[in-house]
Design brief:
Layout: H1 5-31, H2 36-60, H3 66-85, H4 90-93, H5 96-117, H6 122-144
Helix pairs in contact: 1-2, 1-3, 1-5, 1-6, 2-3, 5-6
Length: 153
């Protein structure tokens, strides 16, 4: 499937949104010592929700007949789902620590790709990395403020 310029832009945006959204989710579960299987299943649920949200949002943001809007929405949906799986799939396969490092490495690779796609030189990379690390860092700070005893198990 060949994407036009607009669909490619939506795919890039969707992939990065998926990674950023789900890496925060994964880090929140890690801080509270969730098992790899809980992170995998929870992350998959987050990936599905992000995909539906981004696809619907893209479809609804366009004017015209449904046939004209479906291409961008489809590109957004597929890319969001694939991007969302980057920080999740390692937890289906590996134990906690190797899965965490693979999730981080994969997410950084996606941020590098996004920085490259922006065609803005250093600024494109800087914004991509700051967005990724900002989401992960803020999640770690906020979730660490919640005492373990406050979480119902």
């Amino acid at each position: 499937m060949k994407l036009n310029s607009d669909e490619r832009t939506q795919a890039v945006f969707g992939a990065f949104d998926g990674v950023v959204s789900v890496i925060g989710f994964v880090f929140g579960l890690i801080v509270h010592h969730s098992s790899p299987s809980a992170i995998a299943v929870g992350g998959l649920g987050g990936a599905i929700a992000a995909t539906i949200s981004m696809t619907t949002g893209e479809y609804e943001s366009r004017d015209g007949e449904w046939q004209a809007r479906i291409g961008g929405a489809g590109a957004m949906g597929v890319a969001t789902f694939v991007g969302s799986l980057v920080p999740v799939w390692p937890f289906f396969v590996f134990s906690r620590n190797p899965a965490l490092w693979l999730a981080i490495a994969g997410s950084v690779l996606v941020a590098t790709w996004i920085g490259s796609e922006k065609h803005k030189g250093f600024l494109g990379y800087a914004v991509a990395y700051m967005t990724l690390f900002g989401a992960a860092g803020l999640t770690l700070v906020v979730v660490n403020l919640i005492p373990q005893s406050a979480v119902i198990t």
